[in-house]
Amino acid sequence: MPITIEMPKLSDTMTEGTLLRWVKKVGDTVAVGDVLAEVETDKATMEMEAFDEGTLSEVYVGDGQTVQVGQKLALLLGDGEAKPAESKSGSPVSKQSDVQKKPDTEKKASQTKQPEPVPASQPLKPAEAESGVRVKASPLARKVAAELGVQLQTLPGSGPGGRIVRDDVLSAHENRSQTVPQAPKPAAPATPAAIPPLAVSQEDIKIQLGGMRRTIAARLLEAKTTIPHFYLQADVDAEPLVQLRQQLNTANEAAGLPKFTVNDFILKATAVTAAHVPKANASFAGDTIVQYGSVQLACAVAIDDGLVTPVIRDAQAKSLSQISAEIKDLAAKARSKKLKPEQYQGGTLTVSNLGSYGVDQFFAIINPPQSLILSVGAILKKPVVNAAGAIVPGQRIVFGLSCDHRVVDGAIGAQFLAELKRLLETPALMLV
Amino acid sequence: MALITYREALRTALDEEILRDENVVVIGEEVAQYNGAYKVTEGLWAAHGDTRLVDTPISEAGFVGMGIGAAMLGLRPVIELMFWSFAYVAFDQIVNNAGCVRYMSGGLLNVPIVIRGPANGGTNVGATHSHTPENLLANMPGLKVVAPATAYDAKGLLKTSIRDNDPVMFMENTLLYGEKWEVPDNEYLIPLGQADIKRPGSDVSLIAHGRAVLTCLKAAELLAAEHDIDAEVVDLRSIRPLDEETVLNSVRKTHRAVVVEEGKPFCGIGAQLASTIQERAFDDLDAPIGRVAALDAPAIYSPPLEKRQLPDPQRVIEKVLRLS
Amino acid sequence: MHTVLQSPGESRSTINEQLTKADKIRLLRDMYRIRRFEQTSLKYYNLGRMGGFLHLYSGQEAVAVGTISLLGENDHVITAYRDHGHALAAGMSMNECMAELFGKATGCSKGKGGSMHFFAPDKRYWGGHGIVGGQTPLGAGIAYALKYKHIPGCCLCYLGDGAINQGAFHESLNLAALFQLPVVYIIENNGYSMGTSQKRSSAYKGSLAERAEAYNIAWDVFIGEDLYEVRNRTNIAVERARKAQQPTLLEIQTYRYYGHSVADANAKKYRTSEEIDDYKNNHDPLQIFGKALLNEEVLTQADIQEIDKAAKEEANAAVAFAEESPLPQESDILTDVYWEVDNQTEAAKHGSYFFNS
Q1: Mutant choice from A140, A164, A165, A170 vs B, greatest count of B C-beta within 10 A
Q2: How many B×C Cβ pairs under 8 Å?
Q3: Which residues of B touch A142 (CB under 8 A)?
Q4: What domains are defined for chain B?
Q5: Which residues lie across from A18 on neighbouring strands?
């Protein structure tokens, strides 16, 4: 059988060799052990011995040529043998490289699996990168802050070097009346106001726009410029609500159940209101108006440098407890950037609560394609006129309702607010 | 139950295992007729004779390797090193033979040997006699490393180590030999790879092995009395295999960790633990992980300075306060 | 060129008279098998099928085959890294050895050891060790265990002329003499420790084995090209170990045709081709023993050629076996490290044994 002689690996580190000089010539007889050629390796010049016998019939590499280990050098034929029709390509190291190839292809395969579609309003970069300002907080503090919905940026840190530690987060949490942070959605100024110069001149900070900020900018500009907004407000007695909350929370605490926030009640009332006033739970669709058959209640949640509006599905059918649990869970997911598209898309109206920030009242911008957004202010202690005509201290919340006049006329908007007020001032009505 | 010294506990363990298994043989310098350089084997030669207690010449590479060869054929030698510092002359035998022959044979043989001796500083014997090679040995897959801090742990762990079918490097401490603890009279075994909470606490995990555990216990007392900090002390007991779960559970509870060792800092036991803790308990950390180790120079001779070179309760407390 | 010394030592034993025809043929066949195995390994090493080192035994066959042929069921063998000859002489198969060289899972060490680490405890063959001289305390240990267990056997512990200067070897000799261990240390003196000749490496009086005098150990020095002579002289030491529980230091003068290892680029520089050719032509152990058997009319020239051919075929078949065998799996990297873990014992359930992240 014809034998191809290949450049041998003559040392453990050799990768190529130079065939210095053929000792045997074409036509010579070769016996086992005969020196075929002199080969120069990375370490020294060595003699290449024959392992087989035959006649040297072909030589592929000339004196002085350098080839890789494994390349064919010559052909040995046995008695009466002829040259094979096709010359074999020498690749003795192929077995080794086959082994090496596999992990590479596996790597490539796993790399192609990756990317999931990035949701439009999901921030792509961590908050720090967007703002350029890093908050020094321990991993535990971050985790707890995310769970409780506490903003890290504004917290004082009691750890070394001003690091925010868990206790700092817990203290901040206890000091708040409401646990769900509200999304700031102020009426956007038509033009940016002139910024007064700082008393002591400092360097301007340039903040790169992240994906979420870009989206917010685009959508809200679209909303404000294409939707004919008009605004209604109502002042609601919050005492019955506050009392009911206290009552329920006392009972829940004793039973080891989670507590309700004021916002939980407002969400519940809004869901019921939207179910009772279907014309307000609708959308402008060009040449039709779509009145939704269910209430997909979105609630604005502030997150690092932005906001999202996760949706409570079929809110009209959910109890206060269910709504409370869901919004807690959605808000946590929102803050840890784990919301899936189906969790923030498809809302039919939105609630935005800035009460915990101390805002008295405001009118948020509608989230297209919705037609309404309810803005919730803080619980304020105010003098009020009671049924007997006397002025007494009361607790009031001012609700703002921004409406899309293409879908919701003044009367419908008013009806919505009246129903909301009715339910909140007699919360037991939400049971029936 | 009785109050016995660390060395008595070791001796009892050796005695029990010699009686239990005819293949157990104690080999080392001065172990037999001299009754042990540190009296760990005192009385054993008189009780068991020349074949079970074997005095060797000063020839660590030779008798450690001889022990390994004998272990390949099924004996269970317990090699005593007068100091673990003397292991370095036998390092090739330990690492390349005890540590590698099972693997290189594809699992055809095993080396059920125990090499034991004091691995500690703090006795003014100078740099070459004060080594603590547990980290170097634990780096070697194929070897096991054990470091008991109390007499109770020493007895249970030595018995288990002798019965273990893999090579076990057993780290003792001359400063602990004379200390006493409550030890049951009956036989008991402590598994390798199981740490022990020596003092439960809630504010910080002090993680250590060997004599550093006692240092941490003292530090914990002072932290409670003077700083109102409740420290948990985790005694690793076994370096390889390592009870990572107990360590991580402790840190998940206390949210702070300081690893203390009498060895030098670079690539010490603390380096391994700090890496594991930050990777697997990152979100539970309320502070960076701290380490306290011997000051990074060869062991100094001058007695008061060597004391300062090693971790003491004050340094542990300072580290805890600085990280919080 | 190293000189052949006249050896002192005791008179010849009659161990060879016990050999039958079949025994003698088997001994010759074992030498041919080693020769062909080594040649074939070299060929495939050069074709890139193996990594690392390859230390070939060609030229020294009579030492392994001769000495190991003396052993019985109580006797053990341990050697250094030039271990293919001892492995085959001890009864390992070409298949498992070749597969090991190819790094395959069917190798005698599952591909985890390589050329220097062939083991067969079931055949009382304890490797295969890479650190020069590192196996000599192990040899003392094996002998120690035999004595401890009252097994009337011996341990043959081989080392090269380059290893005799390692500290561990001196410690082993001292322990062997002090504890009266049944170990026979066999220095396979092929004249060179890697590229350095005996004269340039060792300070010695008459021979390397004469160093035994310092430890009051019996010693002998002889030429290892004649298998009969190897058996005769070694048997004295083997009997001394088994019966008197005393160690011996033997020096067997032999020759290796190839370099220290395949990577030894200077094999023909620190030795002349005349020297190598002289051995091939006048001192080759296969030739010498073959001639002796022809004279004894134990077999014919044709028989010898048949033996050679069969050995070549066996080696090629081993290559085919190795090529077709699978590689170890990636999960195999972490097995065979700890006995307790591999056997899933109670001990394995506590703590982490591996620290991959």
Answers
A1: A140
A2: 188
A3: 283
A4: 2-183 (3.40.50.970), 196-323 (3.40.50.920)
A5: A40, A66
